[in-house]
Amino acid sequence: MSLMSKTEIAPLIVEAAAIEEAAKLLYIRACKILPDDIKAGFTRLDATETDATAKTILATMIENIGVAERMDNLLCQDTGIPIFNLLIGRNVAVDGFALKEAIARGTARATREHPLRSSVVHPITRKNEHTSCGDRVPVINIDFTDADRELRLEMIPKGSGSENGSFLQMLIPADGLSAVKRFVVDRVIQAGGKVCPPTIVGVGVGGTSDLCMHLAKIAATRPLGSRCSDAEGATLEAQLSEAVNALGIGPQGLGGDSTSFAVHVETAATHITMNPVAVNIQCHSARRASATFTPAGVSIGF
Amino acid sequence: MTHHSLPMPITQDQVRALRVGDTVTLEETLYGIRDATQIHMFDHGRRTKFNLQGHAVIHTAPNLRKVERVGNNHSGYEAVCVGTTTSDRMERFTRPLMEREGVRIIIGKGGLRDGSLAAFRDLGGAYLAVVGGAAALETTWIEAVEDVDMDDLNPESLYKFRIKGFGPLLVAMDSHGGSLFAKVNDEAARRRQAVLEKLGAA
């Protein structure tokens, strides 16, 4: 038996230098241009908001999106913790270690060369290296897809105001789904205006403790309009979206209908004795950028 | 609902004239302050060279570009993007900031708690809400980064900004016990039961 099989077609090879350039470009682009789905989300909230103060705040946020694009400036001062999702398709040849180093180099160059505020410090000494990098940061998530000869790099500058709105509870089966729902509603009330509403509330249901938290992050950073692929999860996210927007928290926690663009749910199978739920919140500056490498070249998007 | 245009610094009488729901535009001078700045000032006993009496501070840590210190620029920085951060983390510094440094106005997002509301009442102060995440717009209200102190804490140094038309900002907490955040929180708590019932989770 051979451990290696011959591929019929030449694999996609992405050089580390190209990843470094993409990482730099994506960090800066993500900080400046909001994805179309988020812009559409603002239009929708602005059309349905009934509170006068909330309308004014939404108008300021929409104006800011335009100012950032016209002046080629950052949407928000918080450059966040840099997160990169690396999605590797089939027939892709990568030097994984070189790729991780290239992402960090690109992040540091964006920070120094733009310049961007380095928002990253050592957790104990609080020392800032002014590179937006440190031990295990940028956060790099690696997964594999069935896309042939395609490598996708996604960048998310995750702001701290909303990231501090992160919660995990290891509920038990006897608590039921109602406790999951109560947890989400109560954490949204607790977060109030601190997480920069209108938000995307990411909810993880199931898995292990760490997977549950990660599901919440995936949910919080998913495009608006996308739905949970699990039917039960999709029902739950629709119910919770309506629920959190009935609380009256509103934009910036100053009252109104527009507390969240949406609640997103992601699910994973869990243990017979477990019922974990996690919340991770994304602020209204729900920034993303992506680069997709194929044999035809690289395309930049959200 | 009154609009106030305030060239900084201001007096206690001026800050006590502000009422929740009023709007304010600040002129001339604004100081930028943050978690680390206040941890060093109040937990580590560091003192600032700036006189903050009667002034406004904004909870911020800006994006800056290094430039030559020439003319009125004593900081060696120019603004790239200046916004605001979540105020709640800095709740315990409100009273010392007012008592020791004489600060009259705090600007930020997400609001402060009861301790700050009591300090505003006792000492004469107010919290003005600026729209968080609208930093590109806010940067257009900043004319210059005039000076900086405690710059070893960069980007959490204490910054002196020259401002023009900084606002409109919303008076969200005043010196008369008014707080829009407390009002919204109370309302959310009141609505909670009905929301849970609709979810079948009461």
Would you kindly provide a written description of the structure presented here, covering whatever features stand out?
The complex is a heterodimer of chains A (302) and B (202). Chain A has helices at 16-32, 36-48, 52-70, 96-113, 160-163, 176-191, 209-220, 231-244; strands at residues 12-13, 81-90, 92-93, 139-148, 151-158, 166-171, 199-206, 260-268, 275-282, 289-294, 297-301. Chain A has 302 residues and is an alpha/beta fold. Chain A folds into two domains: 12-33 and 75-159 and 287-301, 60s Ribosomal Protein L30, Chain: A (2-Layer Sandwich), CATH 3.30.1330; 160-282, no CATH class. In chain A, strands 4-2-5-10-11 form a five-stranded mixed β-sheet. A four-stranded mixed β-sheet of chain A has the order 6-9-7-8. In chain A, a hairpin with a 2-residue loop joins strand 10 and strand 11. The longest helix of chain A has 19 residues, at 52-70. The radius of gyration of chain A is 20 Å and the shape is globular. The N and C termini of chain A lie far apart (43 Å). Chain B is of the alpha/beta class. Chain B has a single domain (3-177), classed as Fe-S hydro-lyase, tartrate dehydratase beta-type, catalytic domain (fumarase, Alpha-Beta Barrel), CATH 3.20.130.10. Helices cover 28% and strands 30% of the residues of chain B. In chain B, the strands form two sheets. Chain B has a five-stranded mixed beta barrel with strand order 2-3-6-7-9. A two-stranded antiparallel sheet of chain B has the order 4-5. In chain B, helix 3 packs parallel to helix 4. Chain B is globular. The interface between A and B is large, with 58 and 51 residues.
